[in-house]
Amino acid sequence: MNYFSNTDARVILADDEQSELDAYSFLLQSMGVKHITTVIDSRKITPVLEKFNSCVLFLDLNMPYKSGKEVLVEVREKFPHTPVIICTANSDIEMAVDCLKLGAHDYLVKPINVNTFGSALRNALEICTLRNEVMTLKGLSFGKNLNCPEHFSGIITKNPVMAGLFHYIESIAASGQPVLILGETGSGKELFAKAIHDASGVSGEFVAIDVSGLDDTLFSDTLFGHKKGAYTGADKNRPGLIEKAGQGTIFLDEIGDLNSSSQVKLLRLLQEGIYYPLGDDLPQKCRARIITATNKKLNMLSQNENEFRRDLYYRLSTHLIQVPPLRERKEDIPLLAEHLTREAAGSMGKKISSVSQSFLDLLSLLPFPGNVRELKTYIFDAVAQCRKDELSEHAVLDRLNHEWTGYSPKTTGPDTMKPGAIDLETIFGHFPTLSELTHYAIETSLKKSDNNQNKAAKTLGISKQALSKRLKKRKP
Hints:
The chain is α/β, with parallel strands linked by helices. It has 20 helices and 18 strands.
């Protein structure tokens, strides 16, 4: 019977056994499912998910390369709206509970009969439908232009994932609910917080504070303020940042470092909407929106109440934004490099009209663990040394040779260079030119990918067409 013939949702089957994939595909087809994608290599699940907006993932737990549990954690972080149904021969109750805690939609034990399989898929599709309806009611449409693009003018990008985040921000701007922004150091989390504030159209101020290193008293005094005589040295009333923000936005950066006592106070603020200045028994009403950010995985920390309160995590993450690292949006590097060059040249009174292609090629090879902040460091240093009207790579080659020498593969994501690995002069017998570095990078990526140009191009952070052009130039 065709139970699902009217749905356009795609079902993704991930299993390392081809026979299992064939069996489940046949089962889905008999139910009327029209769009089925199979994945036998767990490392390819994330790239497949990036292609589809609406899908359900059936995931085997016991897979090589990446276990199903590792994939589940990654999918819940990057694709929180994708239901994940675990399919496994492991009937261990503790494993099932762990997977459900990590965000699995359902847990099915093999062999799976048709009724159980169909019921799990039906429930997952209903969840997808409800989420899409909510997004529609909120005006979330990724296919349309932004209502107010000027709110995002401070974020330079042409990356489609970033564009999707802009649409999401416009949809949640008016809700007034807390927002949690996750992202690596230097990825621009505060810029996203400011964009949310601007898109909200509120009348109050945007007030930012880094809470890392604040003890409980200093956190309370900074956020809530104090009354005269609250403690030794408090010789006058001092308003806190909540009062300063008014009906605006409070942005708490590095929230993952907040100590346990301060977490309790922040939770009470979110639950009750009131706070007490130090030394005052009269509650004050908080009218500001709370936005927080961290480079830590709070969902993991919240599983241990001694590190971060789970109830506070859920309160903070009413709306959740994951800012992609720069290495996952390398098409933005030329835009950012040109913008930062203009900014640096203006601040130093220099006239630099362009950035050389060789410099951009060099930047595209870097992993940027410090993200845009690291890129800015290199650009400003290069501009300071520049004696011409074009910024070239020579100003940073010496520095990069000290900071990033050699390659080391990560367990996930593209290859990244690690400090202090292998000196470039050891590899080449002399300090290499940029052309030699580029040739070496291409040859290494092709070797690692077994001459698969698609994989090699992805590792290098360039398109397959760009790689093909470089390969043609090398031919005699």
